[in-house]
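Practice problem: predict the structure.
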Amino acid sequence: MIKYFARAFKITNENIILTTPLVLFLFLASLYLGVAQRAPENLASAILLLVTILFMVSAFFAGWLYMVKKAIDLDKQEFIIDEDKAKASFHLIKEVPVGIGEYFLSMLGGMILYAIFFLLLLLVGYFVGMHLIGNPGLGLDQLRNALATPAAMKALVTSLSAEQLAKLNSWNFLFLVGSSLFSFLTLFWGAEIVSRTKNPFFAFFKAIKFTFSNFLSALILFVYISFVNFSVSLINALSMIHPIVYFISMLLYFYFVVYVVVLVFLYYDRENSKKLTATEDGVIQDNSSNGADSVGQDESGDSSGEDS
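Answer:
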């Protein structure tokens, strides 16, 4: 696994242009959300906002993940001149509209399925939590008000009893375990769609199958990604003390987001290539052994004919 960690750094550094679509998308999304806040609060506006965000996210992932896949493919090529490799890396940006045209519908369906599966997970977790943990005695209005500001959250926590705090911590742990399990099972879903299976429904199950067929290494990969994510998030939280430090930490955050996606695609591509090569070698060996048996049978037949 260490070779994948190091190789992903190399690919990310050589194709730093992969950060461009991510930064542009987040910038445009923040602009749109800022404009949407001024829209009238009614059901039609909420539906329009949800649909627009769904389409934006689907188009972004369709183009960007395809660009990452092409960067992984580019790493397999050999370039005599470094300038040629730099030009090829720069031209990766042209793959974004190609990926949008090719995989937009797959990503759109996948995002909808992703939301449905996650909601089902929350529903199952709710029934499990109510059975094993119990109701902490908090209403939706209390939780909504507490999430508004850190001060409101602190006030809510201090007002709770020891039993309520214990139940609330148990609920948080249950949600953490459930969301982590869901993220682990769907870790290779995006790579599956842009690499092998356009059908988002089948891509989910094939990604889960791939995860279980490579369970130990996939688990190590997931733990490593979780550690990287926690470390970068912690740095971002500590960088709020100064605008310049925060800006540098945000650049670091964008870099590691790209690195994590490249790492997932690299691992998925190389492990599938290994299996494909092993399968082809097995077929060739079987054919060779069958051929040898046929030759042996022919020789036996010839010798029998000579004896007769």
